[in-house]
Amino acid sequence: MDLLLSNKIAIITGASRGIGKAIAETLSAEGMKVVLAARSSKELESLAKSLSNESLIQVVDLRAPESANQVVASTIEKFGNVDLLVNNAGATKRGDFLELSDADWQDGYALKFFGAMRGARAAWPHLCASGGSIINIVGIGGRTGSAEFTIGGAVNASVLNLTKCLADRGLKEGVRVNAINPGSIATERLQIRLREFASEQGVEVAAAEKEMANAFKIARFGEPAEIARVVAFLASPQSSYCQGAIVDVDGGATRTL
Question: Rg of the chain over CA atoms, in angstroms?
């Protein structure tokens, strides 16, 4: 299937590693020109060199209020327009609710929620002009709460609601807005959790991986490229009837409606 993405312009936040990196690689392979935004210049430079299409690096901390405007302005200066914004940046702290500080909560919202909101606000006029789209990479914790993921669950739920609100506006203004909820994906963060779990249980990492997957009632952990392929489809005109969609890509972990 031709996804009709060749020569389109995509901004990807949190692009330096994990899911964001896989998204950049996939969209570039589909012919898109990609803007790579993250804090790590070294990792972004390495990624940019490996891509098959033209790219632009933006070393920014999306917690900063003006960073989204900077990324969008640089994109327009370099490429002239924006067709896609992928809000992927944002990690939140896990832990005991009673031990999480106000600063932990503020940090969680500052990057993932406010970063996505500001990015959407900055890019919106350009997406209206191009008939473009926004894809928010959120997480299944926004739909199914858990005691050790109070910050992440609350932030993710906020981003999911933001997705629906922007999709409603987008109906009138020609911008498609959708979201993807990844489940347990084999990123560096998951590998750290696996090593910690293996140490706590006194088992090998391979055994810990199997045990954790069983605890989540899934057959295996996902791969970043599996999220990236869904991004490519939702970014494409081939998915033109998807508006306000929330797609769980989680191996069946989410069992609620």
Answer: 18
